[in-house]
Structures are given as C-alpha cells and as structure tokens.
Amino acid sequence: MGEGGLLGITNSKRVKNIVIFAIILIACTSSCGSIPKLIVLHDPLTADEHITLGLSYEQKGEYDFAVQEYKKAIKMTDADFRPFFYAGNVYYKIKDYKLSEKYYNKALKIAPDSGDIHNNLAWVYIDTGKYEDAGREAEKAVSIKKGPYYLNTLAHVYYRMGRYRDAKDVLEEAMTLTSPADKMLRDDEIKLLEEINMKIPLNPPFSKGESDSPL
C-alpha cells in the first residue's frame, strides 16, 4: 500500500493567515525601498503554527520546507509527538527510511500508545523487508484499536511473511470496517485479497493423519 497506508492529522485553518502575512511581508520588503530591514529577535510563530505551515508545504509536495518547519517546532517543545511523526511521514515519502524510522521512534517515546505511529513505522519495516519488526508494530497498532487501516497494514505484513490464511482473515475483518466512501482503502483491500487468493490453493492438502476418503 506504500504511501497510501500512512496516517496523518488534519491541518489547522491558522495556516491561511500565516501564509497571507508572509506574502504581504515579502511584497513590502521587496518593493518599498524606504522601509528599513526588519530585525527579528525571536521566532514569531508558535510550534503549532510551524506544524500547520509544515503540513501545508507537505500537501504541496514541498518536502524540504515541510521538514524545516517540523524541525522548528521540535526545537520549541520536547513534549509534542506531532512534529516527529510528521517528519517521519515526509522522510517515508521520499524513501529515506533510516530517518523515517528515527523520527517515528522519537515520536513513540512521547506517545507510545499512538496506533498511527506504530502503523506508519510498520510500513517502514515492510518496505525495507523487516517483516518481523513490521508485524510487531502492526500488531501493536491493532491491539490499541481495531481500525481498518491498522488491520490492512497487518494483512500486508502477513502476506509478505507467507502467512496467507492469516492475511485473509485479517483483511476480511478490515473490509467489514472500511467505509464505502474510502475508495482508496477499499481498492487496496480488493487488490490484496485477489493476490492472497492466488496464493491459497482451492483444495489444500490434508494434514498428517487425515484421509481424503469419507468416513
């Protein structure tokens, strides 16, 4: 599922005012020759505002600027998992899995019971072939909450581990919880189910001691 499996948090509306202020400031400083240079002695934005601005950059695909904003927020607080989590998301998107893992683990130190962080870290391990680690993280997310995204991630892990029947059981449970409006997740579930069914024989061999003749 890749990037589609990542989870995030909705942007704040305050970013609109921040961006408008920045545009006005840039316009004035570039065109109004009589205005002296501004000397900024401290960061005028709060950690929340840096996070919001970072999310805005991230949505536009401007990942370098997004990470810069998240790191500014990190410098302002060591008790908020969000900038670490969002930085992890950005690094995952650009396939810098080492840094993505680093920031997700930092986020987990602050919020160890966040299913979203465990879920997204599981995708780092899936994409790097560390399936045992991926399974641990995905199972942790599901133990926190049986949400369709978490179950979907776990199904992907089991599929890659060759545990096809377990993958199918988990995926079918996920599909009962998935909203019909979530087309991206539903399409991924259908595709994965088709792949799983191709791996499971229609007539599985009998286990030791069983007979193929009727009693």
Features:
elongated, 10 helices, disordered C terminus, mainly alpha, 215 residues
Give the helices and strands, then pairings.
Layout: H1 14-31, H2 47-59, H3 63-76, H4 82-93, H5 97-110, H6 115-127, H7 131-144, H8 148-160, H9 164-177, H10 183-199
Helix pairs in contact: 1-2, 2-3, 3-4, 4-5, 5-6, 6-7, 6-8, 7-8, 8-9, 8-10, 9-10
Please summarize what this structure is:
This protein is mainly α and 215 residues long. It contains 10 helices and no strands.
List low-confidence stretches.
Answer: 10-16, 18-35, 206-215
Helix proportion: 55-70%
**Strand share of the residues?**
under 5%
Radius of gyration: 23 Å
Anisotropy-based shape? elongated
Number of strands: 0
Q: What structural category do the secondary elements indicate? A: mainly alpha
CA(first)-CA(last) distance: 45 Å
What does this structure look like?
The structure is a single chain. By secondary structure, the protein is mainly α. It has helices at 14-31, 47-59, 63-76, 82-93, 97-110, 115-127, 131-144, 148-160, 164-177, 183-199. α1 (14-31) packs across α2. It is built from ten helices and no strands.
